Amino acid sequence: MRARRHTSSGVPLLESAAWRAFLRDIGLIALTFVVGYGISVLWLSPGTVFTKDHSLPRVLEMGQAEARRSLTGLGFRPRLDGERHSDAFPRGTVIWQDPPEGTVLPPNSVVQLIV
User: Fold this and answer.
1) Staple partner for 67: which of 59, 60, 108, 109, CB 3.0–4.6 Å?
2) Strand segments (E) across the chain
């Protein structure tokens, strides 16, 4: 009894050397893209990848208690710097924050709020 050493894949296209080379090239292009993307992410934003720093959320127009909860939940220390009257916002809502939203800060940083 004779046994076949090489069996066909069942897909005639994959048996062609040209198609196998094409698929290999597409795989290499995809791998190059993924590696390049990973390197560019590390190159452009290394600070936020390797540290525990957080981006400051928007707490404007939130209630004072809700803003404090949101900031302390991320590891920031909210500090009330005073109260001011505003016709645009109801009483007890945050009308000003410093630093502004989106700023990347280390943990335990102070965020000033005016209600």
Assistant:
1) 59
2) 54-55, 77-80, 96-98, 104-105, 110-114
